[in-house]
Amino acid sequence: MLTAETRRRDFPSLEGKAYFNSAAEGIPPLAVGEALQQYFRDKQLGMDGRIAHAAQWEAARALTAEFFGLTADEVGICSCSSEAYNLAALALNLKPGDEVVVTDLDFPASSTPWLQPSCAATTRVWRNRAGALRVEDLVPLLNAKTRLVTVSLVSFYSGFMVALPPVLDAVRKHSPALVAVDVTQALGRVPLDLRGVDLIVSSTHKWILASHGGGLVGVPKARTAEWTTPAGGWFNLEDAFGPKSFEEVKSKPGAASFMVGMPNYPALYAIRAGLEYIRGVGVANIDAHARPLVMHCLAELRKLPVEVLTPNEPEHVAGILAFKHPRAAELNARLHAANVHVMNPTGRLRVAIHGYNTAVDVEKLLTTLKAAL
């Protein structure tokens, strides 16, 4: 991933392409494709294949735990981050008078469960200033009624990376709230320190280079009681087929309660392979390679006639850069025609720089963008 030789070997589809859209769709290495083929071979064994499926499930949980700083028993895997947050809402069972704090830089998955009319709690919005979240703006939103603060470690919108320790300190000082952190735009790209977080969630088809169909959930043992979801199912239950199965049900505790039905085994094979690949390269090595490219690109973008949304604060920059321009769609078309792939979500362009990107890629992006402007 970090050299020309391994890049050609592991990511042949990137040949001749400058791909800056990992924040939407990561490009999987060939090892992930091989894992999906292995799933098919195992599936052809029928029930005997479930032994191999279970091994992949255990391996994926163990790898996720390693990245989250937890144990395998503290990790669950559901279908996507949206499912994870909806199950989290069931677990909290919010009442009238409860309050939840969301941010206006978050992806809808982590904020909309609390905004549905069926949610009894009051939702407060921690609003950004110039693409950044300031802890001093969070504090007035916290009080004795606050049950949850949910935030993305890295914003999909502006690329802002929140500093978790000050956020955790503020929440603990001013409220009894739990803190949920979405690491979708950080996992596999920047080193993580999630100590003190009460709920960790991530999707699987972006920076960890796996497939769709996975939602990684981390629940520290100390928060098992708060995050045991009462959802119906069978995989998440203590004794789904016992003699009293039509009289009473009991959810497995904590993270295991988020795995409500038959695991998505194809995704689990891909998750295991993607995380193994990222671990083999090393997240710190990926960050050391990509960060200079990010900072150079950010500095050059600030010289152009565009509205840069990413704050110019190195400690709050991860892998995503974003900017606005009235002709964003046209600029995106010009870039795409030059085989430079960025994201164009409703009026802004988003550049995501991963370990497989190079200095040549960045210069091609900047040169093409300058010409288009």
Description of the structure:
The chain is of the alpha/beta class and 373 residues long. The chain has 2 domains: 4-20 and 282-372, Aspartate Aminotransferase, domain 1; 33-279, Type I PLP-dependent aspartate aminotransferase-like (Major domain) (Aspartate Aminotransferase, domain 2, 3-Layer(aba) Sandwich). It has 11 helices and 12 strands. The protein has helices at residues 4-10, 30-43, 49-68, 81-92, 108-111, 135-138, 164-174, 265-281, 283-301, 328-337, 359-372; strands at 18-19, 75-78, 99-103, 122-126, 146-152, 178-182, 199-203, 215-218, 307-308, 320-324, 340-341, 348-352. It has a 7-stranded mixed beta sheet with strand order 2-8-7-6-5-3-4, with helices on both faces. A 3-stranded antiparallel beta sheet has the order 9-10-12. Strand 3 (99-103), helix 5 and strand 4 form a beta-alpha-beta unit. The radius of gyration is 21 Å and the shape is globular. The mean pLDDT is 97.
Give the terminus-to-terminus CA distance.
Answer: 31 Å
Strands across the major sheet, in which order?
Answer: 2-8-7-6-5-3-4
Please provide the count of β strands: 12
Within CATH, the superfamily of the largest domain carries the name Type I PLP-dependent aspartate aminotransferase-like (Major domain)
SSE order? HEHHEHEHEHEHEEEHHEEHEEH
Number of domains as seen in the coordinates? 2
Estimate the helix proportion, in percent: 25-40%
What is the oligomer described by this structure? single chain
Q: Note the total helix count.
A: 11
The main β sheet shows up as: 7 strands, mixed
Q: Which architecture of the largest domain does the CATH hierarchy give at level 2?
A: 3-Layer(aba) Sandwich
Q: Write down the Rg.
A: 21 Å
What is the CATH topology classification name of the largest domain?
Aspartate Aminotransferase, domain 2
**How much of the residues is beta strand, in percent?**
5-15%
Question: Which structural category do the helix and sheet elements fall into?
Answer: alpha/beta
**Mean model confidence by pLDDT:** 97
Q: So what's the CATH class of the largest domain?
A: Alpha Beta
Q: Low-confidence segments, ≥5 residues, pLDDT <50?
A: none
- Tell the overall outline: globular
